[in-house]
Design goal:
The chain is an alpha/beta fold. 35% of the residues lie in helices and 26% in strands. Strands 1, 2, 3, 4, 5, 6, 7, 8, 9, 10, 11 and 12 form a 12-stranded mixed beta sheet that branches. Helix 1 runs parallel beside helix 2 and helix 8 packs across helix 10.
Protein backbone atom coordinates (compact mmCIF):
# COMPACT_ATOMS: atom_id res chain seq x y z
CA UNK A 1 0.00 0.00 0.00
CA UNK A 2 1.17 3.53 -0.77
CA UNK A 3 0.85 5.49 2.44
CA UNK A 4 0.32 9.26 2.46
CA UNK A 5 3.50 10.67 3.99
CA UNK A 6 3.44 13.53 6.50
CA UNK A 7 6.67 15.54 6.33
CA UNK A 8 7.66 18.42 8.62
CA UNK A 9 10.07 20.86 7.00
CA UNK A 10 13.02 22.51 8.72
CA UNK A 11 13.80 25.76 6.90
CA UNK A 12 17.33 26.59 8.08
CA UNK A 13 19.01 29.99 8.33
CA UNK A 14 22.12 30.72 10.41
CA UNK A 15 21.87 27.30 12.06
CA UNK A 16 18.30 27.78 13.30
CA UNK A 17 14.88 26.66 12.15
CA UNK A 18 12.95 29.64 10.77
CA UNK A 19 9.57 30.16 9.14
CA UNK A 20 8.41 33.04 7.02
CA UNK A 21 5.50 34.24 4.89
CA UNK A 22 5.90 34.40 1.11
CA UNK A 23 9.56 33.37 1.65
CA UNK A 24 10.29 36.49 3.82
CA UNK A 25 9.51 37.88 7.33
CA UNK A 26 11.32 35.02 9.03
CA UNK A 27 10.64 33.99 12.64
CA UNK A 28 12.83 31.77 14.78
CA UNK A 29 11.34 28.31 15.33
CA UNK A 30 13.97 26.56 17.41
CA UNK A 31 16.90 24.20 17.23
CA UNK A 32 17.07 21.87 14.18
CA UNK A 33 18.24 18.77 16.06
CA UNK A 34 15.66 19.15 18.85
CA UNK A 35 12.87 19.65 16.31
CA UNK A 36 14.04 16.66 14.27
CA UNK A 37 13.98 14.37 17.30
CA UNK A 38 10.54 15.58 18.35
CA UNK A 39 9.07 15.05 14.89
CA UNK A 40 10.36 11.50 14.68
CA UNK A 41 8.85 10.77 18.11
CA UNK A 42 5.52 12.21 16.94
CA UNK A 43 5.42 9.88 13.96
CA UNK A 44 6.75 11.89 11.01
CA UNK A 45 7.31 9.67 7.98
CA UNK A 46 10.20 11.75 6.67
CA UNK A 47 11.91 15.04 7.43
CA UNK A 48 12.90 17.83 5.04
CA UNK A 49 15.85 20.16 5.70
CA UNK A 50 16.12 23.21 3.44
CA UNK A 51 19.05 25.61 3.78
CA UNK A 52 17.04 28.55 2.48
CA UNK A 53 19.86 31.07 1.98
CA UNK A 54 22.59 28.78 0.63
CA UNK A 55 21.86 29.45 -3.06
CA UNK A 56 21.46 33.21 -2.62
CA UNK A 57 24.68 33.38 -0.59
CA UNK A 58 26.49 31.26 -3.19
CA UNK A 59 27.50 28.55 -0.76
CA UNK A 60 26.86 24.88 -0.12
CA UNK A 61 24.46 23.47 2.44
CA UNK A 62 25.70 23.60 6.03
CA UNK A 63 27.15 20.08 6.07
CA UNK A 64 27.96 19.80 9.77
CA UNK A 65 24.39 20.63 10.75
CA UNK A 66 23.08 18.16 8.17
CA UNK A 67 25.22 15.43 9.75
CA UNK A 68 23.94 16.31 13.24
CA UNK A 69 20.30 16.13 12.15
CA UNK A 70 20.84 12.91 10.16
CA UNK A 71 22.53 11.27 13.14
CA UNK A 72 19.69 12.27 15.49
CA UNK A 73 16.90 10.49 13.57
CA UNK A 74 16.22 7.20 11.81
CA UNK A 75 13.48 8.37 9.43
CA UNK A 76 14.47 9.43 5.87
CA UNK A 77 15.94 12.92 5.59
CA UNK A 78 15.72 15.05 2.43
CA UNK A 79 18.15 17.96 2.21
CA UNK A 80 18.16 20.87 -0.24
CA UNK A 81 19.73 24.29 -0.62
CA UNK A 82 22.91 25.24 -2.47
CA UNK A 83 23.17 21.91 -4.29
CA UNK A 84 24.93 22.61 -7.59
CA UNK A 85 26.60 19.39 -8.73
CA UNK A 86 26.60 15.60 -8.61
CA UNK A 87 29.50 15.86 -6.17
CA UNK A 88 27.33 17.95 -3.82
CA UNK A 89 24.59 15.32 -4.04
CA UNK A 90 26.96 12.44 -3.37
CA UNK A 91 28.51 14.26 -0.39
CA UNK A 92 25.06 14.72 1.17
CA UNK A 93 24.19 11.08 0.66
CA UNK A 94 27.46 10.09 2.34
CA UNK A 95 26.49 12.32 5.28
CA UNK A 96 23.44 10.16 5.95
CA UNK A 97 20.83 11.91 3.80
CA UNK A 98 18.22 9.68 2.09
CA UNK A 99 17.22 12.08 -0.70
CA UNK A 100 18.61 15.33 -2.08
CA UNK A 101 16.56 18.28 -3.29
CA UNK A 102 17.70 20.44 -6.17
CA UNK A 103 16.04 23.56 -7.53
CA UNK A 104 17.84 26.61 -8.94
CA UNK A 105 20.86 24.68 -10.26
CA UNK A 106 18.58 22.21 -12.07
CA UNK A 107 16.67 25.00 -13.81
CA UNK A 108 19.90 26.70 -14.84
CA UNK A 109 21.40 23.37 -15.98
CA UNK A 110 18.70 20.74 -16.65
CA UNK A 111 21.35 18.14 -17.52
CA UNK A 112 22.20 18.09 -13.81
CA UNK A 113 19.00 16.10 -13.20
CA UNK A 114 19.95 13.55 -15.86
CA UNK A 115 23.52 13.24 -14.60
CA UNK A 116 22.43 12.95 -10.97
CA UNK A 117 19.76 10.34 -11.76
CA UNK A 118 22.37 8.22 -13.52
CA UNK A 119 24.89 8.71 -10.70
CA UNK A 120 22.73 8.08 -7.63
CA UNK A 121 19.37 6.87 -8.96
CA UNK A 122 16.10 8.72 -9.52
CA UNK A 123 14.54 7.65 -6.18
CA UNK A 124 17.13 9.75 -4.32
CA UNK A 125 16.49 12.88 -6.38
CA UNK A 126 13.79 15.42 -5.49
CA UNK A 127 13.31 18.46 -7.72
CA UNK A 128 11.82 21.42 -5.85
CA UNK A 129 9.63 23.67 -7.98
CA UNK A 130 8.98 27.16 -6.59
CA UNK A 131 6.23 28.92 -8.52
CA UNK A 132 3.98 31.93 -8.45
CA UNK A 133 0.77 32.70 -10.28
CA UNK A 134 1.30 34.51 -13.58
CA UNK A 135 -1.50 34.70 -16.14
CA UNK A 136 1.02 35.26 -18.93
CA UNK A 137 2.24 31.66 -18.59
CA UNK A 138 0.36 28.90 -20.49
CA UNK A 139 -0.35 27.05 -17.21
CA UNK A 140 -0.84 30.19 -15.14
CA UNK A 141 2.33 29.52 -13.10
CA UNK A 142 5.86 30.88 -13.49
CA UNK A 143 9.02 29.26 -12.13
CA UNK A 144 11.00 31.33 -9.61
CA UNK A 145 14.52 30.67 -8.38
CA UNK A 146 17.02 31.98 -5.81
CA UNK A 147 14.54 31.47 -2.97
CA UNK A 148 11.79 33.31 -4.82
CA UNK A 149 13.94 36.34 -5.61
CA UNK A 150 14.34 35.76 -9.37
CA UNK A 151 11.65 35.25 -12.01
CA UNK A 152 12.61 32.90 -14.84
CA UNK A 153 9.99 33.55 -17.49
CA UNK A 154 9.51 29.76 -17.67
CA UNK A 155 6.27 27.87 -17.27
CA UNK A 156 6.33 25.88 -14.02
CA UNK A 157 4.08 23.05 -15.22
CA UNK A 158 6.01 22.54 -18.44
CA UNK A 159 9.12 22.28 -16.27
CA UNK A 160 7.44 19.65 -14.08
CA UNK A 161 6.79 17.49 -17.14
CA UNK A 162 10.38 17.91 -18.29
CA UNK A 163 11.69 16.88 -14.86
CA UNK A 164 10.17 13.45 -15.36
CA UNK A 165 11.85 13.10 -18.76
CA UNK A 166 15.20 14.08 -17.26
CA UNK A 167 14.98 11.48 -14.49
CA UNK A 168 13.66 13.19 -11.35
CA UNK A 169 12.28 10.81 -8.73
CA UNK A 170 9.92 13.16 -6.90
CA UNK A 171 8.68 16.75 -7.18
CA UNK A 172 8.17 19.31 -4.41
CA UNK A 173 6.09 22.23 -5.69
CA UNK A 174 5.78 25.27 -3.42
CA UNK A 175 3.55 28.23 -4.17
CA UNK A 176 5.05 31.61 -3.28
CA UNK A 177 1.50 32.97 -3.13
CA UNK A 178 0.37 30.62 -0.36
CA UNK A 179 3.65 29.99 1.50
CA UNK A 180 3.33 30.62 5.23
CA UNK A 181 -0.13 32.16 4.92
CA UNK A 182 -1.83 29.07 6.39
CA UNK A 183 -4.94 29.44 4.24
CA UNK A 184 -4.30 26.15 2.45
CA UNK A 185 -2.06 24.81 -0.26
CA UNK A 186 -2.33 25.97 -3.86
CA UNK A 187 -4.30 22.88 -4.89
CA UNK A 188 -4.35 23.84 -8.56
CA UNK A 189 -0.56 24.05 -8.68
CA UNK A 190 -0.16 20.72 -6.86
CA UNK A 191 -2.67 18.96 -9.10
CA UNK A 192 -1.21 20.36 -12.32
CA UNK A 193 2.32 19.32 -11.31
CA UNK A 194 1.05 15.80 -10.55
CA UNK A 195 -0.90 15.48 -13.79
CA UNK A 196 1.94 16.84 -15.93
CA UNK A 197 4.68 14.71 -14.39
CA UNK A 198 2.95 11.57 -13.03
CA UNK A 199 5.72 11.51 -10.39
CA UNK A 200 5.25 11.35 -6.61
CA UNK A 201 4.40 14.91 -5.56
CA UNK A 202 4.64 16.51 -2.12
CA UNK A 203 2.28 19.43 -1.47
CA UNK A 204 4.06 22.40 0.11
CA UNK A 205 3.32 25.98 1.08
CA UNK A 206 0.27 27.12 3.02
CA UNK A 207 -0.94 24.40 5.41
CA UNK A 208 -2.86 25.86 8.32
CA UNK A 209 -5.15 23.02 9.39
CA UNK A 210 -5.61 19.26 9.18
CA UNK A 211 -8.32 19.89 6.60
CA UNK A 212 -5.72 21.48 4.32
CA UNK A 213 -3.63 18.32 4.48
CA UNK A 214 -6.66 16.26 3.48
CA UNK A 215 -7.50 18.62 0.60
CA UNK A 216 -3.94 18.39 -0.73
CA UNK A 217 -4.31 14.64 -1.12
CA UNK A 218 -7.90 14.47 -2.34
CA UNK A 219 -8.09 17.59 -4.53
CA UNK A 220 -4.41 18.30 -5.14
CA UNK A 221 -3.60 14.62 -5.85
CA UNK A 222 -0.52 14.85 -3.60
CA UNK A 223 1.31 11.72 -2.45
CA UNK A 224 2.74 13.49 0.61
CA UNK A 225 2.09 16.66 2.57
CA UNK A 226 4.82 18.95 3.85
CA UNK A 227 4.22 21.59 6.50
CA UNK A 228 6.26 23.85 8.72
CA UNK A 229 4.43 26.57 10.67
CA UNK A 230 1.67 24.37 12.09
CA UNK A 231 4.20 21.88 13.43
CA UNK A 232 6.96 24.30 14.52
CA UNK A 233 4.62 26.47 16.56
CA UNK A 234 2.87 23.38 17.98
CA UNK A 235 -0.53 24.32 16.57
CA UNK A 236 -1.07 20.75 15.35
CA UNK A 237 0.91 17.65 16.26
CA UNK A 238 1.97 15.19 13.59
CA UNK A 239 0.09 12.50 15.50
CA UNK A 240 -3.13 14.53 15.38
CA UNK A 241 -2.66 15.25 11.69
CA UNK A 242 -2.23 11.57 10.85
CA UNK A 243 -5.17 10.52 13.01
CA UNK A 244 -7.36 13.02 11.17
CA UNK A 245 -6.26 11.77 7.75
CA UNK A 246 -6.87 8.21 8.92
CA UNK A 247 -10.36 9.14 10.14
CA UNK A 248 -11.11 10.45 6.63
CA UNK A 249 -10.17 7.14 5.07
CA UNK A 250 -6.69 8.02 3.82
CA UNK A 251 -3.88 5.46 4.21
CA UNK A 252 -1.32 6.71 6.75
CA UNK A 253 1.15 5.01 9.07
CA UNK A 254 -0.11 5.50 12.63
Amino acid sequence: MNYIRVIPCLDIKDGRVVKGIHFVDLQDAGDPVENARLYEQEGADELAFLDITATVEGRQTTMELVKEVAAAISIPLTVGGGVKSCADIENLLKAGVAKVGINTAAIQNPDLIKEAAQAVGSPRLVVAIDARRNGAMPSGYELVIHGGRTLTGQDAIAWAARCRELGAGELLPTSMDTDGVKNGYDLELTRKVKEASQLPVTASGGAGSVEHLYEAVVWGKADAVLAASIFHFREISIRAAKEYLHSKGLPVRL
